[in-house]
Write a structure and sequence with these properties.
By secondary structure, this protein is mainly alpha-helical. The chain has helices at 43-51, 57-62, 67-79, 87-103, 107-115, 123-132, 139-145, 158-165, 168-176, 192-198, 202-210, 225-239, 246-269, 281-294, 298-325, and strands at 27-28, 35-36. A two-stranded antiparallel ribbon has the order 1-2. The longest helix is centred in the C-terminal third of the chain and has 28 residues, at 298-325. The radius of gyration is 46 Å and the shape is elongated. ANK repeats lie at residues 154-180, 188-220. Residues 264-326 are annotated as: Disordered. Residues 270-279 have a biased composition (Pro residues). InterPro entries: Ank_Repeat/CDKN_Inhibitor, Ankyrin_rpt, Ankyrin_rpt-contain_sf.
């Protein structure tokens, strides 16, 4: 006889973290975007309802044809009026909107902020675009049309900002717009090429060199891009935890590119080697004449010396013979 198996109460199954939880969707207010149970909580909606005639309030809410009108009225009321806040707060608000449009690469919104809300197209705004913009490069022309200077000023150069960040799109757009890559920055006199080398931006370095920037351009302290590249590579290798990383390879490529450009420019600027001198027949004849005029040749001199020695020996022999005979 088998004993029945007793089963305890079933335990809840453990939740799978990958399984989405089906929570009830909360309604959000069309104006303040907060989860609500009713749209009547919003003060803006209360103002709108209070502004409606009493006899037509329920008709507007119930009537299906007025739903779009109510939504449009809520949007118009939610826009508000910037003239109701002080000028300082209003300026900060519109500048924040302009910077957000730059980070999102939203050219229509940026144009609206400049044209309608009177945001000044300053050098700082252009530098922000040079760093963060990733959309249509026509933003450079838009900012320049509203008064932005493509070369900025001594302390802020949009081209240097793009080179430092490695934003190749904006770097080329600024160069095409007429930015001068030779403009110095700050008291040290570094250029956009120095910034690109210092921060290890290989593509920016190549774009500037292709544009015609000399590879041996020194700053106010005499530092060239090649010296900065070599020093930066040594410092990065000493502090890098995983070698070789992408930044190591970029700095090695920068050093090689600068060495190759310097070697190429040095070979082009070096004077050609002198051609070997061709012998002049007239000069050879004159030298031969001079040698013949100065004295006899070596063979003649040796023969003369030998003859003299032979004569002396002959004379000595004769003397000996004469003495023997005597």
């Amino acid at each position: 006889m088998t004993r029945p198996v007793e089963r305890g109460p079933s335990s809840p199954k453990p939740l799978n973290p990958l399984t989405p939880l089906n929570f009830p969707k909360a309604r959000t207010c069309a104006l303040c975007r907060t989860p609500v149970l009713s749209v009547a909580h919003c003060p803006l909606l209360e103002q709108l309802i209070a502004a409606l005639p009493l006899n037509s309030m329920y008709a507007h809410v119930i009537s299906p044809c007025s739903h779009q009108e109510l939504k449009q009225a809520l949007r118009d009321l939610g826009k508000g009026d910037l003239n109701n806040i002080p000028a300082g707060y209003r300026t900060d608000a519109v500048k924040g909107a302009a910077y957000r449009a730059i980070r999102k690469s939203d050219l229509p919104m940026l144009t609206t902020c400049i044209r309608d809300f009177k945001v000044r197209a300053s050098t700082k705004l252009l530098c922000e675009a040079a760093v963060d913009w990733s959309g249509d490069p026509a933003v450079v022309g838009t900012l320049m049309a509203h008064g932005a200077r493509v070369n900025g000023h001594q302390d802020e150069r949009p081209l240097a900002a793009a080179a430092q960040k490695g934003n190749l799109l904006m770097l080329r757009a600024l160069l095409e717009a007429g930015a001068d890559p030779m403009k110095p920055i700050g008291e040290e006199g570094e250029t956009a090429l120095h910034y690109a080398v210092r921060f290890g931006r290989f593509e920016s370095v190549r774009a500037l060199l292709d544009h015609g920037v000399p590879a041996d351009l020194p700053d106010q302290q005499g530092r060239t891009p090649l010296s900065l590249a070599e020093k930066g590579l040594v410092m990065h290798v000493q502090t890098c935890g995983m070698q070789p990383c992408s930044r190591c390879e970029a700095r090695i490529q920068i050093r090689g590119e600068l060495r190759w450009r310097l070697g190429k420019s040095g070979a082009a600027s070096a004077p050609p080697p002198p051609a070997p001198a061709q012998p002049d027949p007239a000069s050879e004849d004159s030298s031969t004449d001079v040698e013949e005029y100065d004295g006899t040749e070596a063979s003649d001199v040796c023969e003369n010396e030998y003859d003299e020695e032979g004569e002396e020996e002959v004379i000595d022999v004769d003397d000996e013979d004469d003495s023997h005979e005597l």
